[in-house]
Amino acid sequence: MKQVTKHVIRNDLKRLFTYRLCLIGFKRKGFDRIYSYNLGEEAGVTAEQVRKDFSVFKIKGNKKSGYKINDLLHAINEIFKYQHNQHVIVVGMGNIGKALVQYKRFILRKMVIVASFDIDPSKQSKRFGIPVMPMEMMGEIIKKFHVKVAILAVPDISAQDTANILVDQGITGILNFAPVILKVPDDIIVSNINLCDELESVIYYTQKVM
Q1: In the listed set 79, 112, 131, which residue is the last one of a domain according to the structure?
Q2: Which residues lie across from 150 on neighbouring strands?
Q3: pLDDT tens, 107-126?
Q4: What's the rounded Cα separation, in Å, for the pair 31 and 42?
């Protein structure tokens, strides 16, 4: 039975991305070791929160001598399996889809968009660095590249039907740019990205502090 997904991206997981970005910054400045209070101050959290998050993911360090930055980066990369390419597809080649397939930083994080799909035949004849294929070929590509994650960038009216197709084809994770709440089985991960909501949130908080 399909229902609104119960899975959410945990805050401690999100903070790992922030820690990783901070660690790269410290490394570029020439540091090779760091303490939890340094990392916490840079990331905007307490040292206790840093240590708690590391404990959750079994990242170890020495309280007295701190953490080696390279060791932390390696541990975080291990968590996200960055040593292996992660194959992804994009469904919907409108403005967002086009921008995503041309985003160069995905490959730096070993996330490889292997194909995109669109129902519009005129878009299928174009190339944006990767092949744009008809929806009927989706199952073949998913199977060939062992794809588990899809980026959904279709209009809201077709988002649920498209999500159903993705799930039926074996996709277990969806990054959803459509402004709708998808109903999927319990074991499917959905992360919703609504650019209007994000911008409106920033506007709201800037007005609050004025």
Answers
A1: 79
A2: 89, 174
A3: 888 899 999 999 998 888 77
A4: 14
- Same domain assignment for residues 75 and 166: no
Q: How far is CA 95 from the centre of its chain?
A: 19
Task: Flag whether 41 is in a domain.
Answer: yes
Q: Mean pLDDT in each 10-residue stretch from start to end of the chain (210 residues)?
A: 53 87 94 93 93 90 83 88 84 94 87 94 80 94 96 96 97 95 92 88 80
The Cα-based distances of 91 to 42, 96, 141, 190, 194 in angstroms read 36, 10, 12, 15, 16
Tokens standing for residue 209: 């502090």
Residue 204 maps to a domain: no
Q: What is the pLDDT of residues 57-71, one digit of tens each?
A: 899 877 678 899 999
Distance of CA 45 to the CA centre of its chain: 22
d(CA 88, CA 174): 10
Closest CA relative to residue 150, chosen from 102, 107, 77, 97: 97
pTM, two decimals, is: 0.79
Mark out the alpha helices in 29-134 (DSSP H runs). Answer: 36-43, 47-56, 69-79, 95-101, 105-108, 121-124
